[in-house]
Design goal:
This is TRAF-type domain-containing protein. Keywords: Metal-binding, Zinc, Zinc-finger. It comes from Triticum aestivum. It holds the Pfam family zf-TRAF. By secondary structure, this protein is mostly helical. It folds into three domains: about 20-165, no CATH class; about 190-245; about 310-445, no CATH class. The chain has helices at about 1-5, 20-45, 50-80, 85-95, 95-110, 115-120, 125-140, 145-160, 175-180, 205-210, 235-240, 265-270, 270-310, 310-320, 335-350, 355-360, 390-405, and strands at about 15, 170, 190, 200, 215-220, 225-230, 245, 260, 350-355, 365-370, 420-425, 425-430, 440-445. The strands form six sheets. The protein has a three-stranded antiparallel sheet. The chain has a two-stranded antiparallel ribbon with strand order 1-2. A two-stranded antiparallel sheet has the order 3-4.
């Protein structure tokens, strides 16, 4: 707008500073390329005789003219006091890419035919894919060169950026003045000075880039003396930073102090006596534990030796009675001692089984299972029984019902404590290899 007002005053100022915000201009050039692809696809949708490529050249000229004319018309109308375009002017001067996008939508809509509208309702995804593919083709074929689009975008920006926020409106009558200005212009291109960074940006964006540059050296966040790149700060603070908080080496035995890892030597020297006290306590506790274990081991050895001394006598009684153990105990052996002895004997035998041949010689079988070693025997061990004439099947059925809890003689026993294997010929086998310390089995015969 200032350019239009001061045309006469600018007469003779032929040297224009054509610097602008490169990020904004680049965004506008991409919008123009997308607009060309969209208009070309939409204008030929449903037309059997035209393709997007066949109309792209003419569409490019038409699009450039439309953008320049619409931007100039908007500014001229606002100057003449015609229609109220304050909202559009505000958007144009503060958000030029959004303003250009609105103009592009107007142009593309004007180029869409009836068939394109109908097709768009049913295949919007297909339409977008066609636009994307054709846009890539335009860029590959260089159908609208980057420099041409940049010139068009700069001309549009010059028309709508009345406040000079995104481009430099300065003009000069001498080239040396222009050169002097260019070296100081706020839109001049600068390269990042941080080691390793290759970014380029306008001078007005120096602070913006500096605030996010991953290669910028910053003082350590934990206030150590080192300077670290922004991208490496988290790694530095979590690993090698001297000010990283760490626990005392004696943390597990009582010292719960946390301090910077550079202060480790100082901490250990200051609290040496405290650490030694923690160590003494641990050693004392371990010694007490060892003593308890030794005492326990001695008791177990005595109990095992005493029990093992009775195994031979009890085993002989077992064999003499024909796999029968008579449940008579005198005062010499307690109930608990005899149980332990029988368990050890059965464990040494690996398994205990009653064959059908031996079963026929018994008048009565009584199976008693003691799950807990401390359980006292009942007055009568006849919890379940059967007579020989009823046969092996009845023995098997009675045992099965007792374990499953369906018999009136049933006893409750976790399945993990007892394993019955009924083999052909009614061989009742009780494997005590894994459960000998939990089970006591008695087979009592009155023969």
């Amino acid at each position: 707008m200032d350019n239009l007002e001061n045309t006469s005053e600018d007469k003779g100022l032929n040297f224009l500073c054509n610097l602008s915000d490169v990020e904004v201009v680049h965004s506008m050039t991409q919008l123009l390329l997308h607009a060309l692809a969209t208009a070309s696809v939409d204008s030929t949708t449903g037309d059997m005789f035209k393709s997007p490529a066949s109309v792209a050249i003419g569409m490019k000229t038409e699009l450039s003219g439309y953008m320049s004319q619409r931007s100039e018309t908007l500014v001229r109308q606002s100057m003449d006091g015609g229609e109220d375009h304050s909202d559009q002017l505000t958007k144009a001067s503060s958000r030029p890419t959004e303003f250009l996008s609105d103009l592009i939508d107007e142009f593309v809509t004007s180029k869409r035919g009836m068939l394109s509208h109908v097709s768009g309702l049913f295949s919007s995804e297909s339409r977008l894919n066609k636009i994307k593919d054709f846009m890539q083709k335009l860029e590959t074929d260089n159908s609208w060169a980057q420099d041409e689009r940049k010139a068009t975008a700069w001309a549009i920006l010059e028309n709508i950026d009345s406040k000079g926020i995104f481009h430099c409106p300065e003009r000069f009558d001498m080239p040396d003045k222009l050169a002097e200005h260019t070296s100081q212009c706020k839109f001049r291109i600068l390269n990042c000075t941080n080691d390793g960074c290759v970014a380029s940006f306008c001078a007005i964006h120096t602070e913006k880039h500096d605030a996010v540059c991953p290669f910028k050296l910053l003082p350590c966040e934990q206030l150590c003396e080192q300077h670290v790149m922004r991208s490496e700060m988290d790694k530095h603070c979590g690993t090698v930073c001297p000010m990283k908080l760490t626990n005392c080496p004696f943390f597990r035995i009582g010292c719960e102090t946390a301090f910077p890892q550079c202060s480790l030597d100082n901490h250990c020297s200051r609290f040496l006596q405290t650490h030694l006290m923690y160590v003494v306590k641990v050693i004392t506790r371990q010694g007490d534990c060892v003593n308890d274990m030794d005492q326990r081991l001695q008791l177990l050895e005595k109990e095992y030796l005493f029990s093992f001394s009775t195994v031979n006598t009890l085993s002989e009684a077992f064999c003499v009675q024909g796999w029968t153990f008579v449940g008579r105990f005198n005062s010499k052996f307690s109930w608990r001692t005899c149980c332990n002895s029988i368990i050890i004997g059965l464990a040494l035998r690996r398994s205990f089984q009653v064959t059908a041949q031996a079963a026929s010689k018994f008048c009565k079988y009584v199976l008693y299972v003691c799950v807990h070693r401390n359980m006292q025997p009942p007055k009568s061990c006849k919890l379940l029984s059967c007579t020989a004439p009823e046969g092996p099947d009845h023995v098997r059925k009675t045992l099965s019902n007792a374990v499953c809890g369906t018999s009136k003689y049933s006893f409750h026993l976790p399945i993990s404590f007892l394993l019955f294997t009924l083999i052909e010929g009614c061989v009742v086998q009780i494997n005590l290899e894994s459960f000998y310390h939990l089970l006591v089995i008695f087979l009592i015969s009155d023969v």
